[in-house]
Amino acid sequence: MSKYSTIRTNKPKLSLLLERKTVLITLVLLVLCAAAAVLSTGIGSKFIAPLDVVKSIFGYGNPMHDVIVLKLRLPRIIIALLVGAALASAGAVLQGLIRNPLASPDVAGITEGASLGTVLFMFFFNEKLSIQWMPLAAIIGAFAVTFLLYVLSWKDGASPLRMVLIGTGLSAAFKSISYMLLISGPFFMADRALTFMTGSIYGASWEKDVFTLLPWLIVLLPLTWLMSRHVNIQSLGDEVAGSAGASVQRHRLLLLILSVSLAGAAVAIGGAIAFVGLIAPHIARKLVGSSFGGLLPVSAMIGALLVLLSDLAARTLFTPLDIPAGVFTAIIGAPFFLYLLYRHRNQ
Amino acid sequence: MERSATSTMRLFGLLLSILLLGAAIVCSIAFGTTDIPLSQVMDSFLHYDASLQQHLVIQTTRLPRALIAGAVGACLAVAGAVMQVITRNPIASPSLFGVNAGASFMVVIASGWLGLSGMQPLALFALLGAAISGAIVFVLGSIGRDGMTPVKITLAGASISAFFASLTQGFMLSSGKMFDQVLVWLVGSVAGRNMAMLQGVLPYMAVGLIIALALSRQLNLLGMGDDIAKTLGQRTAMVKGLASVAVILLAGASVAVAGPIAFIGIIIPHIVRFLIGSDYRWVIPYSAVLGAVLLVASDIGSRYIAMPKEVPVGVMTAVLGVPFFVYIARKGRKAS
Fold first, then answer.
1. Would you list the domain boundaries of chain A?
2. Which of the four CATH numbers 3.40.1550.20, 3.30.310.50, 1.10.10.60, 1.10.3470.10 does domain B69-331 have?
3. HEC per residue, A292-306
4. CA A193/CA A123 separation, integer angstroms
5. CATH number of the domain at A4-279+290-297, please?
6. Which of B23, B25, B34, B26 is nearest to B57 (CA)?
7. Which of the 8 DSSP states describes residue A14?
8. Is A323 on the interface with B (CB under 8 A)?
9. What is the DSSP letter of A158?
10. Residue among A51, A211, A207, A170 nearest B323 (CA)
11. Contact A166 B326 (CB under 8 A)
């Protein structure tokens, strides 16, 4: 029996090579995500048994549970999953693209740009425009910083070193501009904006958050997955990719746009949740190797789990306080990052 | 002969810079939401009269502010200059390498959680935080076969900064105490300080500056590379250790009084080296004076940008610093 199974159809013309192990791990993770979601929906100031949660979701629960589960907790859980998946995918693409395992939207300054975009939106368009437009503001911020990063580090090509250096500089500056807005605005706004900058999905709702983020991801994630082949070939290096017939620059730009959009959309809703985009792809690579077709879904699910669990810890460990989930991803993420730095010390 | 001529030139330049600093401080005292005529400024020093409102403003608000800006600017610039030698990295500075972030976190914890107030204990906590984060970044940045590479130490600094920033923000949000004040402090500001605060941190700053000055000859050797310095009989580990102590004292004390002000530590040493070359016996004093000038001047500027409101001076230095920083990052280290 081979390690792979092949799927071929003639109409439409399509062929897929599936690695059994990858499929298995994907399925296991899917089950884990679902289980974690159900469990975590049940945990809170009032505990609800997992079975009752499932009943409520499918419309057979008792009315009191329905309110807690469907109105209060489920949107937050779903947002955690979506935000985590988006950030992790953005990180996975970026790491393949920059060919540096330490790249991630936060280190490159992309999240900082997105959060400045959102904070600006909060301060200047809060009353005038619907909140539905907030992801757009975040994505514009993310693109602005990426554009700056690319232009400023371009000198016969954009070297990863220059991108890292300039990225850290830019994110420091963006951060202090965000802080200045916080200080100059009214008090309640500062609190909201700072929560956002730390990354929190507190008080997520269906209309405001889930239905805003979901359309973006429904478009972006499959599109990214369809580009897997191009990520794989990019990771071989420009010469090899070029001689294998890929149009390197065009695909790189396209992939960068996808990655930045994913990160921007996630930040718009979940705030600048740190380190997810860095860690998740690494864990995924350990599990299924670096072929991108399998890596992307696995990263996405690990990212989703990561944010879900961090948020669970953030809202339950210090009750009645609700700490931003971003604090916990940072607590897990920073040591992990340092470990990575240690592992890659000789490269 | 020529050597002494350049020395004279440098000494002359240094005196000129000190005059510039004096002028900047006088301007900082005279200009603001209400301008005070110079004669009044002079008067408040010579014949202080507590019943005059202008004298009171000068002595209790404007003067401490100008002096704190000067002291902090000097410390951060010297800390940056020293870090750039010991890490041999052109963008080394207390803000980018996470030293400031660690210090700020400890200050927020000390004041918000332990309820400490007064400059002395806060300064100690700031030093502790600076030492912890600085040590982590330094160790992580220098492990590995190829030693301390710019990418590695920059990434380590960025991640440690992000880590401490997240913790600080999480703590602030969950405690809600003194939120507004801390926020202004976190961007870096020298407004609303009094003389006692400066006195609280001045000893640390002075010791840090003295160590840096005393080490300047050794730093010159170190700048030629570890191997050469060793061959010339230097105990490099000890020099680096002492230099790190100086950096921690300078950065920690600055953060305690003014918050994490960014980019001064990058901008000034580069300007100084451009002006007078890289002899650290001159670079250190020049950095101190010009760093002070830059922060005092930025502070004056910060009063005018959004008159009558004030912009925290940390934002000013960040906006000034980025173009400069990009220039250095593009220019530096073609080899790597």
1. 4-279+290-297
2. 1.10.3470.10
3. HHHHHHHHHHHHHHH
4. 9
5. 1.10.3470.10
6. B34
7. E
8. yes
9. B
10. A170
11. yes
B97–A contact, CB cutoff 8 A: no
CA neighbor of B156 nearest in space, from B176, B177, B136: B136
Show Cβ contacts of residue A301 under 8 Å, excluding neighbours closer than 6 positions.
A26, A29, A30, A32, A33, A85
Q: Give B294-336 pLDDT, tens digit per residue.
A: 999 999 988 888 777 778 888 888 888 888 888 887 876 543 3
Name the residue facing A180 among B167, B180, B315 (closest C-beta). Answer: B315
Pairing of strands A14-19, A4-9: antiparallel
SS3 at position B192: coil
DSSP state of A274: -
**Whether the complex's predicted ipTM surpasses the cut of 0.90:** no
- pLDDT averaged over every residue in chain B: 85
Chain A residue with the nearest C-alpha to that of B321: A173
Q: Which residues contact B62 (CB under 8 A, 6 or more apart)?
A: B28, B29, B32, B36
Residues 229-248 of B with CB under 8 A from A: none
The rounded distance, in Å, linking the Cα atoms of B225 and B246 is: 20
End-to-end CA distance of chain B: 39
Instruction: Establish if A275 touches chain B: CB-CB under 8 angstroms.
Output: yes
> Does A187 reach chain B within 8 Å, measured CB to CB?
yes
A182: nearest Cα among B323, B322, B318, B315 = B315
pLDDT confidence of A182, banded at 50, 70, 90?
A: confident
Q: Which residues of B touch A275 (CB under 8 A)?
A: 162
Backbone angles phi, psi at B141, to 5 degrees: -75, -20
Half-sphere exposure of A342 (CA within 13 A, CB side): 10
Q: Chain B within 8 Å of A215 (Cβ-Cβ)?
A: no
Which of A180, A198, A333 is closest, CB to CB, to B187? Answer: A180
Residues 66-105 of A with CB under 8 A from B: 102
Where do the H-state alpha helices sit in chain A?
Answer: 20-42, 50-57, 63-66, 74-98, 110-124, 134-152, 160-184, 187-198, 211-226, 228-234, 238-243, 248-270, 276-288, 292-316, 325-343
